[in-house]
Every structure is written in structure tokens, then in C-alpha cells.
Design a protein that fits this description.
With 829 residues, the protein is mostly beta strands. It is built from 11 helices and 49 strands. It binds beta-D-galactopyranose (GAL). Belongs to the glycosyl hydrolase 2 family.
């Protein structure tokens, strides 16, 4: 929770008294504890597991975030689904083996831990906040059920005050259950996000108790309107006052207000002025914070911090989207929540690495498909500069999967939307709320009324942001009023129908809420190079020439052209930024495929060729010049082997072994859309040696070159860490890319050597991934085959500082080591 004032990691009950003694002497009005360690976990339903005297000594000790299923093993029988996927235009039901990742997430799991509640007693309150629990959480304190929350992606909180024994001991137990056929992708399993314990006075600011907006912004000043709820026993308390200070990014106080609570009110309203505001944008993610102190007379009752940014945006008919008055189009990606080899277990370093890669891509927006994101992601988007569509649901009343959200919709949809909006409505990064993705209610009777009901709920909770939804059923949604109702119409895979949508809809603008769904496997190239849909090969891989897609989707170029040619389009959200577990289209029916092929980056986060196609268009700060395929094709001598160049430059000349293959220039018009966005030499004959491009700028000046050489035999391993300085907090990660290279340092592009990893010093081996959607090796074991010459190993810190070393070995290869440094975590304020 970003609002917390003090954060501690709370270890078990036995340490409770000790822990109290370690707390700062000054009285704290509010304390927040992250319940990370000392959890006991058991898979299966265990009678009596909620009871305080239950013996859990034999259970596994885990720390959370924890995904119980990511440790495998993979099996085609895990959540085997025999289904007809209607939204994929399937005519009959077939067996889908890896649809949800082939991992053992189905069933029940229990978590237990002793719960020390420091400072708890008369006049205090304690609240548990679950950032997400997969799924159908039942939470117990001392054997009594405190509450339930079915939807695994949402954040929820329970007041546990009446359930606690002030003198202790107290026991927290959580029962989770995942049903089969409940998802279209890998959901993860367990307490996969953080759990927080908040201890406050009984006169306090509740969870998500502030709502901060910036209704007026000019160059000289911005108005900050801060509404702060207060809860008090019996709804009454005398002499309450809220003192708020606004700080700039450097921590300097730039505005102040002190406001008494009007008689009978339950909410403060403060209007403050920030002089000469620095505006938040993806390029300038400037943050401020509002720190509030709640007093009863002279007694400090609570403290609450609301980080925020100052920015304005508009979605306007005929003009499209603008941020801070500047028109722009979304350069967005859709992402599922899993973090590849970490599964669903949230990790800030892993999220930050994803966003770092997306920054280099030139992306400026993320759609959190098809559910509420981890709070850490939204916070990072504020800090690093990404605009976010926070999405809620993949289905409403009408089901896509047998046991999906539709069973909860009537009872829970409003509660889920309210929590979503309340949690995230102070974030400057969030610019749109999405009420759903490709819901079958688009065409079902009553669907339009549901859309209105959901949109109204969101408007009620946050009138400052518009509502969208991802629509795939074009004729139904445009014909029945569904699309016309939404504040912002979002279309999935419909660039060819944008003109029609624009003509028929009243909004005067639209966006590509989901685009492309091009499939490719990193470093794999198929011949002949032919554009086509639903292509399948015996090795369960897709071609990295980026010409293969699904029967409902396109190559990137179709969407690019629509975005470039149609002024009312507001940008796109590509499916997907990263490969994810589950949905292995086009191999849904062909085990062992169990992760996606859609990503611009693979499951290990390694860029595919497509990364450079998007980068050449989106990253306007740095040039892109990328050649494909690799140039090591023994046996293809003399055969046609097309060469593509993805570049931000308008023109380039290709040389094969020094011989010019001619100069190519990007087309500016024409029906061959690929020719507008890629330079392609389609008739090149393979000969070992090298391919080289020389790029020319708009003035015709040769400005950059790129060369790929034919590789020799695998010779050594090369390791490169994304970061070498880590934090000794037991969570931080380094992502180390391993390449199998020949003696000259060329990537061996089809090397599949098994690599072994050993970590020494103040770190531990965490996981490994190679991006091969068919690989059944387990992520947490310290060895894996390279895929197309590469993989990524994850090294995690412990809570001890010191040097860390990762060593990689492989049969017949010269080994490599990389040195990392884990440094003490900064003390909590
Ligand atoms: C869309 C859907 C996504 C994913 C994608 C694959 O229709 O919204 O969740 O299934 O297709 O192309």
C-alpha cells in the first residue's frame, strides 16, 4: 500500500514481544506490516486447518508472495479443457492441454501463520489488506471466518478488530480454492500478492480513505482537491482536524492546509494550491505527495500519505486523446499478470525490469488484461511513466469458461469495481478504467444494460476518468448500442473496420484496445516466408519473420497503417508485451506448448525480432537498426533466405558477403503494408559469411550499420546482468542473460546446450527461463537448455548484504561468472 507511513516486515508471533521492543520509541499513530515470512502452507483441503490449535509443524514453510503451482510439474492433464472457443471462431470443441499453462494450480490450498499485532489493545483497530489471493479466499482469525473474496485478482480488506485477542496469541488462516475450467490463461495459485496488516487508532482514516483530484491546472498553479474520510467509533468524535502538507519530488513542503471536521461530517475536504506545477507525463513522471495528519485536539490519531501527480487529459470527439494539452496516440501493450518463471508471484524487481524493457521499446501505456493489476505495477507506472488502463473483467453474466467469473457476477461485480477504483484512483498513471474484455454480453440480451450499470458505477466512484471496454463482436456491439454507450470505444483486432465504426458511433474517436496478436518464437525462422494465419509446424514453433497471426488477428503493419492513416484513432495496445503462461495459440491443441507466442518479448523477457519493429516506430529518442534472420544456415546454401530490416531510418542497403543486394526505401503509400514499415530483401540467397546493412537518413546520408555473421561452433557462455547492484531485502532480483557464443563472440543461434547455474555469496538461485513455449523443464531448478542460444537466469538476494556470484557451466563450453553486489536496504522511515 502506497499510503503507509511505517512499514515493517512482521515475523512470527513468538517474536512478537521482541518485535515490539525493536519498534521506534516515539508513538506511531499508524503502522503497516508486510506479512512476508513465517507462513505455513499445505496443498489440499485440511479439516480443522483454521483452528488456532491445529498442528501445522509438518506443513511447508513459505514466504509470500507465493505461487504454489509454478513449481510444477507440467502436465497436459492439469486443467485439461475440452472446449469450443467461440471468440476464436472455433466450430467444435477440442481438447486444449496447455490452455492454462499445464501447471497444478487447481484445488485447495491453506496458509497459516501466527499473527502478532503490535500495539493492539483497547481503542485500536486492525485491518488485513490482501493485494490479491488466488482464489476464492476465506480468511479466518482464531478459527472464525472474517470474510470471503472470490475474485482472485482484486484487492480486498477486512477489519479483524473484533476477532483478535488483545493479549494474543492470534492465528491467521486463509483457505483458497481454484476450480477447473475457470480461466483462459494461467491464473497462478495462492497468496501470490502481498498481505498487509494495518494497526491504527479507532479514530482513523480508512483503507483507500483519500480521493485526490487536480481539477484546475495552469502554468502558474494547480488546485489539489483532497477528500479524506474519517472513521470513528459511533460515527462521532470531538475536535477532529486534518493537517495536510504537499511535498514536491524533492520532499520540500510547497502547500499546507489545516481543516477542522465540520459538525456531523465523515469526510474532510481540502483545497490546496501547488504553484508552478510540474506536470506528470510518461516522459516526465513527476510525483508529489500529500501527507495528512489527523488530530483530535492535540493528540495525533492517524497519518496518511497520498502520492499523486498533476496532469490533465482529454478524449475528444474529432480530436482524440491529449495529455497536458498535447495530442498523442497510445503506444501501448496488453500484459497478463504472470512474470514468466516466477509465475503469478508478484515481484517489484521483475515488474521494474519489464517496464525498463518497455521504455526502451518506446511504449508509453499498458492495459492490465484482463484484471486488476498488482498495486506495485501501478505504483511503478506512476514512477517510471506509463499510462495505464486498469481492467476489471474477462466475463460478466455470460460465461466464456465453465467456472469463470460469471458465477460471481451478480453478487460481486459492484464490490469488485468499487475496490478497483478506490484502490487506484489517486494514481496519475491511470487514465482509463476498463469494465471488460470481449464479454459475450456484447451480443447477449441485457448486455447493453449491464454495460451501462457498470459504467455508471465507475463514474459514481471516479467521475474524472472515462470508461472503456475491449470489443470484439463488432456487428453486435456497434449495432445494439453497446459501443455507443462507452465513453471511449475500444476495438480488438478491427483496424479494417475503424472507418465504419467511426461513421456509426457518436464518440468521434476510438482506440485499438487489443491489436496484432502476431505469433512468433524468438530466433526461429520458417521457410518459405509467407504471410498467413493459423500456421503450424511440427516443432510447435512460429516464425520470427513476423508474418504469422490468428484467424481473428493481424500482423503489426495492418494496425500501424490504420493508426497512421485515420486521424480519429487514438493508438493501440498490442497483444502482448510479454509472452505469458497459457494460451499457446496456434498450438492450443498440441502439447507440450503451454505458454504464449504473442509476446513482443518472450517468456524470459528477451526481445524477439518484433521488438525492433515496434521500437523503430515508437522509440523516437534513439535510432533502431535491426536485421533478421540470423545468418547460420548450414544446408541452406543457395536457397532463398529473405532478409528483413526493422529500422527507424527510411532507407538502407543490404550486403551479403560484401555484395550489394540493393537499396530499399520504406514505402509511403500502397497496399503492401509490410513495405511501409519494414525493409525487405525477399530474394536473397544464403551463403555463409555475413549480412550487413548500411542505413541512410532522410537526407540520404549513410549513418549507421548493422552486421550479422555466420557463427562457428559453440565455444563459451557469455553472461550479462540487467543490474549488478541489488538490495539485500530478500526480494530483489538480477536477470542474467546467458548466451552461447562461438570463439569470436557470435551468438550460436540454434544452440540448445544445457546450462547449469550455481550462486554463491549473499544471494540464491531463483529461477530460469528460455522462452521456449514447449519446454517442460522446471523454472526453479538451476539448469535449463538454451533456446536458440539464449536463456535468462534469475538471482535473488537474501537479507544479508555482500558480494554475489553466478556461475554458468555447460558441457563443452567455457564457463562464465558474473559478479553482483547486494547492498543493505535503506531503513524504513
Ligand atoms: C483476444 C483476447 C485475449 C487473447 C487474444 C489472443 O481475443 O481478448 O485475451 O485471447 O485474443 O489473440
Amino acid at each position: 500500500m502506497t499510503q503507509s507511513i511505517v512499514r515493517y516486515t512482521l515475523r512470527g508471533l513468538a517474536a512478537g514481544a521482541l518485535l515490539l521492543a525493536q519498534l521506534p520509541a516515539a508513538a506511531q499513530a499508524r503502522r503497516e506490516y508486510l506479512l512476508t515470512n513465517d507462513w505455513k502452507f499445505a496443498k489440499g483441503d485440511v479439516p480443522g486447518a483454521a483452528q488456532p490449535d491445529f498442528q501445522d509443524a509438518k506443513w511447508q514453510t513459505v514466504s509470500i508472495p507465493h505461487d504454489w503451482a509454478i513449481y510444477g510439474p507440467f502436465s497436459s492433464t492439469n486443467d485439461l479443457q475440452k472446449v469450443k472457443i467461440e471468440q476464436n471462431n472455433e466450430a467444435q470443441a477440442t481438447t486444449k492441454a496447455g490452455r492454462t499453462g499445464g501447471l497444478p494450480f487447481i484445488g485447495t490450498g491453506w496458509y497459516r501463520r501466527p499473527l502478532a499485532v503490535p500495539g493492539f489493545g483497547p481503542g485500536k483497530r486492525a485491518v488485513l489488506v490482501f493485494d490479491g489471493a488466488m482464489s476464492d479466499a476465506h480468511v479466518f482469525i482464531n478459527g472464525k471466518e472474517v470474510g470471503r473474496w472470490p475474485y482472485g485478482y482484486n484487492t480486498f480488506h477486512f477489519d479483524i478488530t473484533p476477532f483478535l485477542q488483545a493479549s494474543g496469541p492470534n492465528t491467521l488462516a486463509v483457505r483458497l480454492e481454484n476450480q477447473p475450467e475457470a480461466s483462459r490463461w494461467y491464473p497462478g495459485a495462492g497468496l501470490y500478492r502481498n498481505v498487509h496488516l494495518l494497526v491504527t487508532d479507532d479514530v482513523h482514516i480508512p483503507v483507500w480513505g483519500t480521493y485526490l483530484t487536480t481539477p484546475e491546472i495552469s502554468a502558474s498553479a494547480a488546485t489539489v482537491k483532497l477528500k479524506t474520510k474519517v472513521e470513528m467509533p459511533g460515527g462521532k468524535a470531538a475536535g477532529l482536524r486534518l493537517e495536510t502538507e504537499i511535498r514536491d519530488a524533492a520532499g520540500k513542503v510547497i502547500a499546507k492546509a489545516s481543516t477542522p471536521l465540520p459538525a456531523g461530517a465523515q469526510e474532510f475536504e481540502q483545497n490546496l494550491t501547488v504553484p508552478k506545477p510540474r506536470l506528470w507525463s510518461p516522459e516526465t513522471p513527476v510525483l508529489y505527495s500529500a501527507s495528512s495528519k489527523l488530530f483530535a485536539g492535540d493528540v495525533l490519531k492517524d497519518e496518511y500519505t497520498t502520492p499523486f501527480g498533476i496532469r490533465s487529459f482529454k478524449f475528444e470527439s474529432g480530436k482524440g486523446f491529449s495529455l497536458n494539452g498535447q495530442p498523442r496516440k497510445f503506444r501501448g501493450v496488453c500484459n497478463h499478470h504472470d512474470l514468466g518463471p516466477l509465475g503469478a508471484a508478484v515481484n517489484t524487481a521483475a515488474l521494474r525490469r519489464q517496464l525498463t524493457l518497455l521504455k526502451d521499446l518506446g511504449a508509453d501505456a499498458i492495459r492490465t488484461t484482463h484484471n486488476m493489476p498488482a498495486p506495485e505495477l501501478v505504483q511503478l507506472c506512476d514512477e517510471m511513466g506509463f499510462m495505464v488502463i486498469v481492467e476489471s473483467f474477462d466475463e460478466w453474466k455470460k460465461a466464456k469458461v465453465k467456472n469463470g467469473y460469471s458465477q460471481y457476477f451478480d453478487q460481486w461485480a459492484e464490490k469488485d469495481l468499487v475496490n478497483m477504483v478506490h484502490r487506484d484512483r489517486n494514481h496519475p498513471s491511470v487514465v482509463l478504467w476498463s469494465i471488460g474484455n470481449e464479454v459475450p454480453d456484447q451480443w447477449a440480451p441485457g448486455g447493453v444494460a449491464i454495460a451501462k450499470q457498470l459504467q455508471d458505477i465507475v463514474h459514481r466512484e471516479d467521475p474524472t476518468r472515462p470508461v472503456t471496454a475491449g470489443m470484439d463482436q463488432f456487428d453486435a456491439a456497434v449495432g445494439n448500442g453497446f459501443a455507443a454507450l462507452l465513453d471511449v470505444p475500444g476495438f480488438n483486432y478491427k483496424p479494417h473496420r475503424y472507418p465504419e465504426a467511426h461513421a456509426k458511433l457518436p464518440q468521434g474517436m476510438l482506440m485499438g484496445s487489443e491489436t496484432a496478436s502476431t505469433v512468433s518464437s524468438r530466433g526461429v525462422y520458417k521457410f518459405p516466408v509467407e504471410k498467413g494465419k493459423d500456421k503450424k509446424y511440427p516443432d510447435n514453433q512460429s516464425s520470427s519473420y513476423d508474418v504469422e497471426y490468428c484467424n481473428w488477428s493481424q500482423t503489426p503493419d495492418e494496425e500501424f497503417a490504420a493508426q497512421d492513416d485515420l486521424s480519429y484513432t487514438m493508438g493501440e495496445f498490442v497483444w502482448t508485451g510479454f509472452d505469458y503462461l497459457g494460451e499457446p495459440t496456434p498450438y492450443d491443441e498440441k502439447w507440450p506448448s503451454h505458454s504464449s507466442y504473442f509476446g513482443i518479448m518472450d517468456l524470459a523477457g528477451i526481445p524477439k525480432d518484433r521488438f525492433y519493429l515496434y521500437r523503430s516506430r515508437w522509440n523516437t529518442a534513439a535510432p533502431t537498426l535491426h536485421l533478421l534472420p540470423h545468418w547460420t544456415w548450414p544446408g541452406r546454401e543457395g536457397q532463398t533466405t529473405p532478409v528483413f530490416c526493422y529500422t527507424s531510418y527510411p532507407e538502407a542497403e543490404l550486403f551479403v558477403n560484401g555484395k550489394s543486394q540493393g537499396r530499399q526505401r520504406k514505402a509511403t503509400t500502397g497496399t503492401n503494408l509490410q513495405a511501409r514499415y519494414r525493409l525487405m530483401w525477399n530474394e536473397v540467397k544464403y551463403a555463409p559469411g555475413s549480412i550487413k546493412v548500411v542505413a541512410y537518413d532522410a537526407q540520404g546520408k549513410a549513418v549507421a550499420t548493422e552486421e550479422i555473421k555466420t557463427a562457428g561452433k559453440p565455444h563459451h557462455i557469455k553472461l550479462t546482468a540487467d543490474r549488478t547492484k541489488l538490495t539485500a531485502d530478500g526480494q530483489d532480483l538480477a536477470f542474467v542473460t546467458a548466451r552461447v557464443e562461438d570463439a569470436q563472440g557470435n551468438l550460436c543461434p540454434d544452440a540448445g546446450n544445457e546450462l547449469e547455474f550455481a550462486v554463491s555469496g549473499a544471494g540464491r538461485f531463483r529461477a530460469v527461463a528460455n522462452g521456449d513455449a514447449t519446454n517442460l523443464q522446471l523454472f526453479h531448478e538451476p539448469h535449463m537448455k538454451a533456446f536458440q542460444g539464449m536463456l535468462v537466469a534469475l538471482v535473488q538476494t537474501t537479507d544479508k548484504a555482500g558480494p554475489v556470484q553466478l556461475k554458468a557451466t555447460g558441457k563443452g563450453l567455457k564457463e562464465a561468472t558474473v559478479q553482483l553486489k547486494s547492498e543493505s536496504a535503506a531503513k524504513p522511515r
